[in-house]
Amino acid sequence: MQRIEYDCRDIDIYLELRKQVGWISLGRAQAKKALDNSLKIVTIYEDERPIAMGRIVGDGAVICYIQDLIVIPEYQSRHIGSQVIDILITYVKGITFKEQRMMLCLMCAKGRESFYEKHNFIARPTDELGPGMIQYIYKED
Question: Which of 5, 34, 60, 131 is least enclosed, having the fewest CB within 10 Å?
Fold first, then answer.
């Protein structure tokens, strides 16, 4: 039986889900801060097993990002990712100021563009928008 939990900030669940999809490992303090600073977290369980998670980060007024959409491999292609995305989009619509616009952004893995396009995201660059960009910051002692 499937269940949805909102705003679960369980570090072990977060780190284990990341591990199951092969993402880079995080330190516990880093994972805790990431979860603590999330605007909304959605975790989906099958029976008592966590199988998916998605987070919203941002300022909650002008811009939000869908972060860490994770669905463990054996549950992918079962519309669970779509379920998480729909919940997160509904949340952002709910916090958007009346008669105002909120940007909802994300960075997707290569080859996953069509999944997000089904949820009305547009790929950049466009005629009006430049490409998305990223920089990784690594700090040594």
Answer: 131
CA proximity to 51, closest of 31, 24, 77: 77
Q: What is the pLDDT of residues 16-47, one digit of tens each?
A: 999 999 999 999 999 999 999 999 999 999 99
Residues 100-114 have pLDDT tens digits of 999 999 998 888 899
Question: What does pLDDT average to over the chain?
Answer: 95
Nearest to 41 by CA among 78, 64, 68, 63: 68
How far apart CA 108 and CA 124 sit, in angstroms, is: 11
Two tokens, residue 116 = 């997000």
**Residue 136 in tokens:** 């990784």
